[in-house]
Amino acid sequence: MTTPRVLVLNGPNLNLLGTRQPEIYGKETLDDIINQLRTQALMAGWELVALQSNHEGELIDAVHAARLDGTLAIIINPAAYSHTSVALLDALNTFDGKVIEVHLSNIHKREAFRHHSYISSRADGVIAGLGSQGYQAALDAIIATAKNA
Length: 149
Hints:
The protein is of the alpha/beta class.
């Protein structure tokens, strides 16, 4: 039996978590968040693969690879690419598994240009404004959905 796999993608500037605007994004680093998720996934019998990139094409390539490598779900915080990347949306539209979009902050309480996400039209769920707990909730939902499938 193959271990179920989830891909966690993080977009531009999220490598600066913990130091970049902690009043908005919190004090946890991306490594802190990913380590918590790895533990959560391992306890549920899942494999977690994580990638952060400041380069749109690298994120797109990861989605393309996930189509073929047995990945069942993607948790994505596209960051600023949420509001700009039709290319990332197109890539996600080629992925047959679950997609959950996560934002640390509530994008709807921020600047008007952040209120629209191209990615949301593909996402099976969107979690915004829960900080790092949003990632944990996304993983819980993916695991629960797979158990009920």
